[in-house]
Amino acid sequence: MCTLSIPVDIFTFNIAINCCRHSNRVDYAFSLLATTFKGGFVPNVVTYTTLIRGLLSQHKFSEARLFFANLTKFREIQPDVITFNTMIDVLCKTGHTDMALWLFRFMEKSDCEPDTVTYNTIINSLCKRGLVDDAFNLHSEMMEKCILPDVQTYSPIIQVLCNFNRWEEVGLLLKQMIDDMKISPDVHTFTILVDAYSKSGKLDDAKHIIQIMNERGVYPNIVTYSTLIHAYCSQGQMDGALAVLNTIKSKKIMPDCYTYSILMNAYCRELKLDIAMDIYRNMASDGLSPTVVTHNILLHGLCQLGKSMEALTFFYKIQGLGHKPDIVTYQTLLGGLCKNHYVDKALSLFRTIECNGLIPESNTYNIIIRGCLWSKKYDGACELVDKMVYSGFSIDAATTSVLRHLLLSKAHDPTLVAIYQKCLIALRYVTCLTSVTVEEAMPAKHKVTPVDINSEAKARDARDADQEIVVLDAKRFDGDAEDHQL
C-alpha cells in the first residue's frame, strides 16, 4: 500500500499492529509503532492498548508495566476504562491477579472509575483462586460505590461458595441477587447449582433446580444435562442417566463427546463393556468424533476385564484412523499388559512412546518397572531405573513395596540389590524423603530389612503393585473438564 501510494492512516496501523499481537510477534508490532512516528501519524489509546496487551500475552509483565507507566507519566495517552479493563482482563487470565489488583487501585487513583466489567473480572479471578472472602469484600465495595452488579458478578461467587459447601451463604446470595437486585440467574448460574448439588450427592435438589429453570423460562443446555447425567452415574443409577439422555434427544439437544464419555465411563466401571462399546458406536452415528479421553475410557475398561491384548489391538486400530494417543493412553495399556503378564509387549510399547512425540512421566516408568520386577526381568528393570533417574524421576511408593517384597524373599539376588541401591540413592537425591544410608539399609550378606522411606510407603503392602491407572482423573474428566466447566 505504501509503495503504491495508497493512503494509510492510524486505523490502518492499528489493524496491522493488532494482527502482529495475535501472531505473537510483538516485536513486529513495535516496529510498526516506529513506522507510525516516521510517517507523521499520532498513535492513539487503541494503539498503545494493543501493544500493552501484546506484551502481557507474552508474559512480559515488567516491560508492560514500565511501558504503561511511561505513557501515563509523559502523558502520551490518557487511559480510559477500556484500556484498564483490557489490561486487567489479560492479567487475570494469565494468573497475575495481584498485579491486576495493583492496576485496579492505580486506576482509582487516576480518576478513572472502575465499572461493572472491571469488578467482575477481578472477582472472577479471585474466585478461581478460592479467595472467596476477598471476592466478597470487593463485591461489598462495589455495592457501596453504587456500581450495580450483574449476573456475571454473582455467578463466580456462588460457584466458589458451592465448592466450599457454604450452602447457607449460597442461599443468602441468591436471595440478594433475585429479590433485592432483581437479577435473574441465567443458564450458567443454574448449571453451577446443578453441578454443585450433584457433586454433593443431592440429586433431588439438582433435579429441582432444573425444574425451576424450566418454570422461569431458562432452558438447560447440554452442559446442564451432562452434569445431571454424571450425578446419576456417580450413584450407579444408570436408568436415570439414560432417561436424561432420552430427554436431551427429545428436546433436539445434541449430546456431545463429554456426555457420551460420562456414560461410557460409568458402564466400564460396572464392567459392562458391551454397552460402553455400543455407546461408542452411537457417537459415530451422531456425527461425533471420539476424543483421546473417550478412547482411554474404553482401553481402561478392556484392561480391567483382563482383555489387554484386545486393548492393544484397539489401540493400533484407532492409531491407524489418525487418533493420537496421550501419555495416559500409554500408561493405561502398560498397566493392563503388565498386570496380565504381557511384559514383553509392554516393553515394546514403552519404546514407542517417544517416537510418538510424548515424554514418559514418573508414573509411566514406575508402571513398567513394576511389571519387570514381577516378571523377574530384573536386568530390564535395572536399565529402566537408570533411564528414570536420568530423566529426573524417582521410585514411587507402589514400586517400593514391590521391590521390598522381592528383596525380603530373594535377598541374595545381586541384580535386585543393585536396583534397590539405585532407587534408594535416587529417592534421597530427588525427593530427600529418607536419611537412611545405603550402607545402613544393606547389611552384610544382602540381608535387607524394610526401610522407612516415608509413612505412605510404609503403610502400603505388596498388593499396591497391582494398582490400576486412573484414566479419568479429576483434572481431565470428573465433571470439571476444562472444555465443559462453568
Top keywords for this entry?
disordered C terminus, globular, mainly alpha, 26 helices, 486 residues
Describe the structure.
The protein is mostly helical. It has 26 helices and no strands. The chain has helices spanning 10-22, 26-38, 45-57, 61-73, 81-93, 97-109, 116-128, 132-144, 151-163, 167-180, 187-199, 203-215, 222-234, 238-250, 257-269, 273-285, 292-304, 308-320, 327-339, 343-350, 362-374, 378-390, 397-409, 414-430, 438-441, 455-459. Helix 19 packs antiparallel against helix 20 and helix 19 runs parallel beside helix 21 (362-374). The longest helix has 17 residues, at 414-430. The protein is globular and about 80 Å long. Residues 431-486 have low confidence and may be disordered. InterPro entries: PPR_rpt (IPR002885), TPR-like_helical_dom_sf (IPR011990).
Give a topology summary.
Layout: H1 10-22, H2 26-38, H3 45-57, H4 61-73, H5 81-93, H6 97-109, H7 116-128, H8 132-144, H9 151-163, H10 167-180, H11 187-199, H12 203-215, H13 222-234, H14 238-250, H15 257-269, H16 273-285, H17 292-304, H18 308-320, H19 327-339, H20 343-350, H21 362-374, H22 378-390, H23 397-409, H24 414-430, H25 438-441, H26 455-459
Helix pairs in contact: 1-2, 1-3, 2-3, 3-4, 3-5, 5-6, 5-7, 6-7, 7-8, 7-9, 8-9, 9-10, 9-11, 11-12, 11-13, 12-13, 13-14, 13-15, 14-15, 15-16, 15-17, 16-17, 17-18, 17-19, 19-20, 19-21, 20-21, 21-22, 21-23, 22-24, 23-24
Family: Belongs to the PPR family. P subfamily.
Protein name: Pentatricopeptide repeat-containing protein
InterPro entries: PPR_rpt, TPR-like_helical_dom_sf
